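S1.2 Input.
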Amino acid sequence: MLRVPGAFTPGCSKTHLPGYIKEAESLKSKGIDLIACVAVNDAFVMSEWGKAHNADGSVTLLADSKGELAKAMDLSFDATGALGNHRFKRFAAIVDNGKIQKLFVEPDTTGLNVSLVENVVKSL
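S1.3 Output.
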């Protein structure tokens, strides 16, 4: 599972999501059943973002429209200046039976290093 600050934002659209789409088969061959991407956006935006990146069949896009999951996981940050509300910190997680097994949180909140697909694949 990966979490991103927002659909259609530069880092999320140019690097983060495309990497997981590209490596979806590799992840699935290592036992990953579902690759999901969640962002604090509405379901309609997430759907269109998925279509724009041809994510269907590789990455399931989910909406946390009110940011409740981000807050519950203590992984939200105040992005009101740039994105209008609180958003997820950028991270990836390996989840097994509802429990986080490994968490890859970007230390600077929105960077593109720790949570990239290459790091997740290495840890499987």
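S1.4 Remarks. The domain at 2-123 is CATH 3.40.30.10 (Glutaredoxin).
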